[in-house]
Structure formats: structure tokens, C-alpha cells
């Protein structure tokens, strides 16, 4: 008697593993009271010193307490005020007070104290 053994491709196995992990996670959430997300916020005043309430990169409807930008971090050129009175619309916080948000030659905005890199 001849037996044929089927080995699915690696990509299919990866999808099966990821789907299984997601299924277990969703089932465990349905049996519990829900997931607890630490650092969730609505406004800057709910975050600590040197932080702001920015939109999460992973879940658009979620805002997380995020550190203000340090030298080299990406920033948004029109986001300066901390605490901001409303809800932030960006995933980055303003730069720390001693830094400025400047545009670099690669067209990205970053926090810097090096005024030679500023695009005037």
C-alpha cells in the first residue's frame, strides 16, 4: 500500500498558525470581561509630564499616552501645543520644548535642535 503525505507550503502553514493564534485570542476575549489597554487616553491632560495623547498606529480609534518627540523622532509640523485642548489627529506628539519640528531633505519632518538642517 502506498501512502501519500501532503505537506502544505510554508506560507499556508504561516497563515494557519496566525489564524489559530487570532482565534484563540478572540475566544479568550469572549470568555473574559475584555482586554485592558494601559496608557489609553482621550486628551493630553490624562497623560504624564512629557507625554501627549496621540492616535495609535495600530487602532485608529484608540489614543495612547505617547512620549514627546526627542532628537530624530518624526513629528507633525502643525502640532506644537502640549497640552492640546482637543483630540489629537496624529500618531506623533510634538517635540520636547527645546527642539523644533523641521523638514529634512528626504521630505520627512523630524525633531531637531540642529538649525543647519532646517528647510527655510
UniProtKB/TrEMBL annotation:
Which N-terminal residues, if any, form the signal peptide?
A: 1-34
| Keyword terms of this UniProt record | Angiogenesis, Disulfide bond, Growth factor, Mitogen, Secreted, Signal
**One of the GO biological process terms:** positive regulation of cell division
* Keyword Disulfide bond assigned: yes
Going by the entry's taxonomy, the superkingdom of the source organism is recorded as: Eukaryota
Which compartments is it annotated to reside in? Secreted
Q: What is its main location?
A: secreted
Per its record, how is this protein called by name?
Prokineticin-1
* Species annotation: Denticeps clupeoides (denticle herring)
Task: Tell me the gene name.
Answer: PROK1
Amino acid at each position: 500500500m502506498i501512502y501519500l503525505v501532503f505537506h502544505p507550503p510554508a506560507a499556508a502553514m504561516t497563515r494557519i498558525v496566525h489564524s489559530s493564534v487570532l482565534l484563540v485570542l478572540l475566544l479568550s476575549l469572549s470568555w473574559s470581561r475584555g482586554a485592558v489597554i494601559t496608557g489609553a487616553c482621550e486628551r493630553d491632560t490624562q497623560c504624564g509630564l512629557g507625554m501627549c495623547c496621540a492616535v495609535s498606529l495600530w487602532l485608529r480609534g484608540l489614543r495612547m499616552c505617547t512620549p514627546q518627540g526627542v532628537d530624530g523622532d518624526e513629528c507633525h509640523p502643525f502640532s506644537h501645543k502640549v497640552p492640546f485642548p482637543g483630540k489629537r489627529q496624529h500618531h506623533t506628539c510634538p517635540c520636547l520644548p527645546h527642539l523644533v519640528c523641521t523638514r529634512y531633505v528626504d521630505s520627512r519632518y523630524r525633531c531637531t535642535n540642529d538649525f543647519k538642517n532646517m528647510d527655510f
